[in-house]
Write a structure and sequence with these properties.
264 residues; 2 domains; globular; three-stranded antiparallel beta sheet; mainly alpha; 12 helices; 65% helix; Rhomboid-like fold
């Protein structure tokens, strides 16, 4: 998949800090899996029997960093990079991390409740599905290109992409394909928890007296001759990015972003 419009983060900050560290952590853990072997996978992957019977509760988070194959890792890290940068920009790094692990733990809990005790679940896909839901809620009309069968380009809006993915997951669950090793319940669980988190965040953001914090790369020191005005203008630009994306900004608004970046 490719994002149709250039990300504002790509324009002023190539990769957001949380996304960068999560990708690095995923690669490092995959290498450890290959070096240590099955013992590492069973200890840090999600095994429902161990979570409930022996209280291996850390597995609800650590399984996100394990992957079954290089292709599995590549797809998840690419999706994290593609959708995560702009979501982190809007939420801020700390809230983005909380959101990511909330979705991952929620997806893991769904897996632990619905899969057999000896099943080993691994991969960041549950958190990624929550991330895609967040992207669609923040940028519903953003056009993305999905490579169908890795060849045929299929263009659709972000909200349509989420509905397509959810429908495919439901179809796989209903059909109950024998031998299917994909954790479809984890995917839908991550999407559900992502939706619940974003709904809660938007309600809090709308409450009087509460203001969404600007991302770190847009924060500037207050100036006695108009710092408050600059901060207010930055907040307006952030809200516009959330609604229309970077492509919807005027040249004056883009210049304001560049000015804020230079003052860091």
């Amino acid at each position: 998949m490719m994002n149709e419009y250039q990300s504002p983060l790509f324009a002023v900050h190539a990769t957001s800090p949380a996304v960068k560290r999560l990708v690095i952590a995923g690669v490092v853990c995959f290498v450890l899996q290959q070096l240590v072997g099955d013992r590492f996978t069973v200890l840090f992957g999600l095994v429902p029997g161990l979570v409930f019977r022996h209280l291996y509760l850390w597995q609800l988070v650590t399984y996100l960093f394990l992957h079954a194959s290089p292709l599995h890792l590549l797809f998840n890290m690419f999706a994290l990079w593609m959708f995560g940068r702009e979501v982190e920009m809007v939420l801020g790094t700390r809230r983005f991390c909380a959101f990511y692990f909330f979705c991952g733990a929620g997806a893991g809990l769904c897996s632990a409740l619905l899969y057999a005790p000896g099943t080993v679940v691994m991969g960041a896909s549950g958190a990624i599905f929550g991330l895609i839901v967040a992207f669609a809620m923040l940028f519903p009309d953003r056009v993305v290109t999905l490579l169908l069968f890795f060849v045929i380009p299929l263009r659709m809006r972000a909200r349509q992409l989420v509905l397509l993915f959810a429908g495919v997951e439901l179809l796989f669950i209903i059909s109950s394909v024998r031998g299917d090793l994909v954790a479809h319940f984890a995917h839908l669980g991550g999407a559900l928890f992502g939706y619940l988190y974003m709904r809660s965040w938007k309600r809090m953001d709308a409450r009087p007296g509460l203001k969404r914090a600007s991302p770190a790369w847009l924060r500037v020191s207050p100036e006695p001759d108009g710092g408050a005005t600059l901060r207010a203008r930055l907040d307006q630009v952030l809200d516009k990015i959330a609604l229309r994306g970077y492509a919807g900004l005027t040249e004056e608004e883009r210049e304001l972003l560049r000015k804020a970046k230079d003052e860091l």
